[in-house]
């Protein structure tokens, strides 16, 4: 995210801070947020407000989308193998 986007996101969080609930979902750990935002200071300020009164729920497990993709790729490979064995490839 560029610096302007990071500033806008900070403003959103700052306005909501201690006034209303906010739910985040992310595939990044908190330590990786500095990679998302163009400015480490802004990332720290956002995290400071987000984590102050938060409840963190870590969900671990295999992604359903990834599971479906793996199955699709497995089936595709079976078709290729069958065609190869038949001499079609």
The overall average pLDDT, rounded, is 88
What is the count of distinct domains?
2
Radius of gyration (Å): 22 Å
Low-confidence stretches: none
Total helix count? 4
The beta-strand count equals 0
Largest sheet: none
Please characterize this protein's 3D structure.
With 89 residues, this protein is mainly α. It has two domains: 1-58, no CATH class; 61-89. The chain is built from four helices and no strands. The protein has helices at residues 3-16, 33-36, 40-52, 64-85. Helix 1 (3-16) runs parallel beside helix 3 (40-52). The longest helix has 22 residues, at 64-85. The chain is elongated and about 65 Å long. The N and C termini lie far apart (45 Å). The mean pLDDT is 88.
Topology:
Elements: H1 3-16, H2 33-36, H3 40-52, H4 64-85
List key phrases describing it.
single chain, 89 residues, mainly alpha, 4 helices
Task: Summarize this structure briefly.
This protein is mainly α. Helix content is 60%, strand content 0%.
């Amino acid at each position: 995210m560029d610096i302007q986007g990071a500033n806008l996101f900070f403003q959103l969080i700052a306005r909501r801070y201690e006034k209303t609930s906010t739910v985040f979902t992310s595939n990044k750990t908190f330590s990786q947020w500095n990679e998302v935002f163009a400015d480490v200071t802004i990332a720290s300020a956002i995290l400071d407000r987000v984590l102050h009164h938060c409840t963190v729920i870590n969900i671990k497990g295999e992604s359903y989308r990834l599971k479906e993709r793996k199955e699709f790729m497995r089936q595709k490979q079976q078709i290729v193998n069958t065609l190869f064995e038949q001499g079609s490839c």
